Amino acid sequence: MIDTLRRRFGLLGRNISYSFSKGYFTEKFSDEVFAGNSYENFDISEINYFTELVKNNPDLKGLNVTIPYKEQVIPFLDKLSKKAALIGAVNTIKFTKSGKLKGYNTDYYGFKKSLEPLLEPHHKKALILGTGGASKGVAFALDELGIPYTFVSREAKENIIDYNLINATTFDNYKIIINCTPVGTSPNIEACPDLPYEFFTDKHIAYDLIYNPAETQFLKNAKEKGAVIKNGYDMLIFQAEKAWKIWNK
């Protein structure tokens, strides 16, 4: 039986009133099995307020972390799990019994678990749109799955291509396209990454980490060409349950 003494959890981010996590855990905690647990949003305008947040909330037991702090929060933590250190991004923080803050990454787990059922032999390479903290977890999951990938950004850098280089040949070589950018998130639901969508086929997977709206313009455009589409909702559930296990171990 899980300890039902009052325990507080929350989400660290900026402009997070839309948060999946608060709704998910509030509903979870409505079950009498989890009585005494609560979940709230900690919306801070910059990461430097994190220290004050921790100081003013000594009864916190765990936090989820979202945009834009998955990388920025790392210097404020006492230690990282091995995988979080390798990934270079944190989306789960555990407040240990000794008062230390330990960072974990459950994004990679959620993404991997939600992508695996869609994979077929021809899904050999992936394009990752975006280079932020979420993309790092995705890249780590693809490494574990043995799928080579290339990052795409608005500016080409070392090991990163820009959108202008994406053409029919790119789509022939990369059958998995993953949107790790916030482009297309509500309320800007008509926006989408700048891609030649006409080259999507029924051999492609279009995966969008966004879950609101459930079908982004990116996914709609890919679906019109026959692609298998997937949004980030299942990934969020898997990563949230993984975070819950971490907080309770």
Automatic annotation (TrEMBL):
Its EC number is 1.1.1.25. One of its GO terms (biological process) is shikimate metabolic process. Keywords: Amino-acid biosynthesis, Aromatic amino acid biosynthesis, Oxidoreductase. GO terms for cellular component: cytosol. Pathway: Metabolic intermediate biosynthesis; chorismate biosynthesis; chorismate from D-erythrose 4-phosphate and phosphoenolpyruvate: step 4/7. GO terms for molecular function: NADP binding; shikimate 3-dehydrogenase (NADP+) activity. The keyword Transmembrane does not apply. PANTHER family: BIFUNCTIONAL 3-DEHYDROQUINATE DEHYDRATASE_SHIKIMATE DEHYDROGENASE, CHLOROPLASTIC, SHIKIMATE DEHYDROGENASE. This is Shikimate dehydrogenase. It comes from Flavobacterium hibernum.
